[in-house]
Amino acid sequence: MNFRKLSHTDDTVSEIGIGVWSLITDWWGADVSKAENVLLKAFNEGVNFFNTADMYGYGKGEEILGKLFETKRDRIVIATKIGYDFYHKKDSLKQSFEVDYLQFALKKSLERLKTDYVDVLMIHNPKMNVILNDDVLEFMKGAKEDGLAKSVGVALGPTLGWGEEGMKAIDRGYESLEYIYNLIEREPGETFLKNGEINHLIRVPHATDVLNEMKWPLSTSEKMHRSLKDNQWVLKAHERTKNLMKFCESKGITLSQLALLFILHERKVTSVFPNVSSEEELKTFLQVEEIEPLNDDDMKFLSDYYKRNYKDLNVESIGETIRYK
């Protein structure tokens, strides 16, 4: 396992981390009963960076990490997120960034994680008014000063197009940014990556499983996370991706591995969190650590491929965010 520096801390983290969300809900097709097995397998294979949120499984994501790693706390790095109030109405996606609520939410997260600190604490999918809120920023800085968090940041979402919000979060002094970045959806990630001072935590590297052939044919079930994406976008992206398979064959790698190699080529990336839903996927993804990195010619090919096949889809993805704003 290769490791990278977690900025603003003394920690190093596995460049491939595990996002708990895809294991403890059925949104990504996982058998949730096997979540513990997958997490322990990842740990035994060298993964030390685990990314969760209080909202994931209404606390279950944090609980499972606390259960498995309480006695190994000094050997793992935890990122979690707060800002969704599921305590008072579980069936809604109500957010709350009042300082009193954030204090309460952080306390409950630490209890579930069975720890007295997290390595990265982020506010979860805030809009611009929250990022500009001085009280929220002071709370986050206070959590760091009090030793409850080593680094504080912003997780952007639920969609792609939060470029202005991400840049403002950096300007305001947040130290970590979690966001979508992949072969198809390169912006606003490439703009964020011009900054070398923050932690870049990359999610959805397989573009809603379009870049993960293990999930083909892609299901359109309303239970799946990709149902939040326009289905025509998924179909177009899938069709335009088929020609990449020849490139993968020439490199002796899978498409899902290519997607991760593309992201890890950028040295400013701190860690990438693929949506793992099985031990088979975990094994395939971690094999990337044994594969020769992409070279400059490979990256040029992928850049040209993006311009020909994906750039308009990237623009469409950014446009999907309007309804959330």
From TrEMBL:
Coiled coil: none annotated. The lineage of its organism: Archaea, Thermoproteota, Thermoprotei, Sulfolobales, Sulfolobaceae. Residues 15-301 form the NADP-dependent oxidoreductase domain. Signal peptide: none annotated. GO terms for molecular function: oxidoreductase activity. This is NADP-dependent oxidoreductase domain-containing protein. CDD domains: AKR_AKR11C1.
